[in-house]
Automatic annotation (TrEMBL):
Protein name: Exoribonuclease phosphorolytic domain-containing protein
Swiss-Prot/TrEMBL GO biological process terms: nuclear mRNA surveillance; poly(A)-dependent snoRNA 3'-end processing; rRNA catabolic process; U4 snRNA 3'-end processing
Source organism of this protein record: Triparma laevis f. longispina
Domain Exoribonuclease phosphorolytic: 37-178
Domain of life: Eukaryota
Biased composition (Low complexity): 23-42
Signal peptide interval: none
Molecular function as annotated in GO: RNA binding
């Protein structure tokens, strides 16, 4: 693996340390008729090369309870929620998926920490994190009106949990599901330029930084740790990256911080500040996609059945 920061302090995918990846989404038009077997909303969502699908079902009446829905208790305004997540069993066999479902009808585990990085453990951990985020913001119109989020991973190139959360936010918003806020997520980590990479190469001592100082020399980036946001898979697997966190912000502030390992107290606030800026950037893109989707839906010819391809807030007919 080559150094994650090149001669001008850009990352391996030519982003600046505080720059997010390109966001794109294909949102399918709403169904002409609503049934329990068809999704209320469906989309594919990409951040960089990480690509997922999200389908929203509901709000629907719980099949086990056919009584009319009653207004939700104001002290508990969230709707019953189900999260289903499917991950590929292995990169070499992407057609087969491992699926896990978490529902409000069954108490979730007390912790989302995992003791191993097996596919099953990561699947449950991700599903629990998504459930905890959206169980706080999906507004209930009736105590028995259930909302289901179904997520499927097509490709993982880093920041998968953040991509799943952002895809769910966009899918819920474009499915007319009432939300108390819009959760937006990004990842952040500390990168040490002088740490040897897995391939045995390290950052050269005579490389020039973007500001003109040397990366490895006095006054340069040697010993200075760089905060990265929206990490790709190469960065996540790098031995020079530590203090990895998944951060979620909503309208009221920080909603969740999921840490893979210990983070020094002195670094934590700065990392969360960088993540807040990254979430603000992603939020602008997601809100732009929502506005253009609504405008395109209004202008779309009836009965053409086309999806709307959206890239960086631009609508392109598909």
């Amino acid at each position: 693996m080559s150094s994650l920061l090149n001669l001008v302090s850009l990352r391996s995918d030519y982003r600046e340390p505080s720059q997010s990846r390109v966001i794109s989404s294909t949102i399918l038009p709403p169904p002409s008729s609503i049934s329990t077997n068809s999704p209320t909303g469906s989309l594919t969502y990409s951040q960089g090369l990480t690509k997922v699908q999200c389908e929203i079902y509901g709000p629907t009446l719980d099949p086990a309870d056919r009584q009319p829905a009653v207004p939700t208790d104001p002290s508990s305004p969230t709707a019953p929620l189900t999260v289903t997540l499917s991950l590929p069993l292995s990169p070499s066999n992407p057609s087969k998926h491992l699926t896990y479902t978490l529902s409000s009808s069954t108490p979730p585990p007390l912790t989302s920490s995992v003791s191993s990085h097996t596919s099953s453990s990561l699947l449950q951990s991700y599903c629990l994190s998504i459930y905890r985020v959206f169980s706080k913001v999906v507004f209930g119109v009736g105590v028995r009106n259930r909302v289901e989020i179904r997520l499927k991973v097509f490709n993982d190139d880093g920041s998968l949990l953040s991509t799943l959360i952002n895809a769910s936010t966009l899918a819920l918003a474009t499915s007319a599901i009432p939300l108390t806020s819009l959760p937006i997520s990004t990842t952040t980590a500390i990168f040490s330029p002088t740490v040897t990479q897995k391939s045995g190469t390290s950052t050269s001592n005579n490389k020039r930084s973007r500001s003109g100082g040397t990366v490895g020399g006095k006054g340069g980036m040697s010993g200075k740790k760089v905060t990265l946001i929206d990490l790709n898979l190469e960065e996540e697997l790098s031995s020079g990256v530590d203090s990895y966190m998944v951060v979620v912000f909503d309208d009221d502030g920080c909603l969740m911080c999921k840490m893979e390992n210990r983070v020094e107290v002195g670094r934590f606030r700065g990392m969360v500040g960088e993540a807040e800026g990254g979430c603000r950037e992603v939020r602008g893109e997601v809100e732009g996609i929502m506005r253009d989707w609504a405008r395109g839906l209004f202008e779309r010819r009836e009965g053409d059945g086309r999806g709307l391809q959206l890239l960086k807030g631009r609508v392109v007919g598909k």
